[in-house]
Amino acid sequence: MGSLTCCMVHNMHISKSYQTLKVLKVKIILFVIQLYFSEDLELMGEFFLSDFKGSPKLELIFVMVIVPLTFNSIQVIYCIPFKAFSIGYKIIS
After folding, report:
1. Residue 62: which residues within 8 A CB-CB, separation 6 or more?
2. Would you list the domain boundaries of the chain?
3. DSSP assigned state of 91
4. Which residues, other chains included, contact 49 with Cβ-Cβ below 8 Å and sequence gap of 6+?
5. Closest CA to 78 of 34, 8, 21, 32
6. How far apart are CA 84 and CA 9, in angstroms?
């Protein structure tokens, strides 16, 4: 029964490593997209922030809360493997 426990722990480690690699892959892809489309993204930013010109606090909330929340949601949807929320490997001692 000890070898089964070791196998379960090893599989959990591989799953976490795989998820970490997927997150790294997404971050690299986003960096390249931002680098390649920097001028277009700047124009888009000016367009979206033009509504907040009179209130810097709302602009700050949009930039620091809404945009990261949106991008993190997209990242989580892409990066979660099929068994992501299965903390389900029970380690038997």
Report:
1. 48, 49, 52
2. 2-79
3. P
4. 59, 62, 63
5. 21
6. 15
**Average pLDDT, stretch 14-42?**
88
Share of the chain above pLDDT 90, in %: 37
Asked if residue 20 has pLDDT above 90, the reply is no
In this structure, the number of other CB atoms found within 10 A of the CB of residue 54 comes to: 7
- Given this model, what pLDDT does residue 93 score? 46
Q: For the CA atoms of the chain, what is the radius of gyration?
A: 20
* DSSP secondary structure letter of residue 87: -
Q: End-to-end CA distance of the chain, in Å?
A: 9
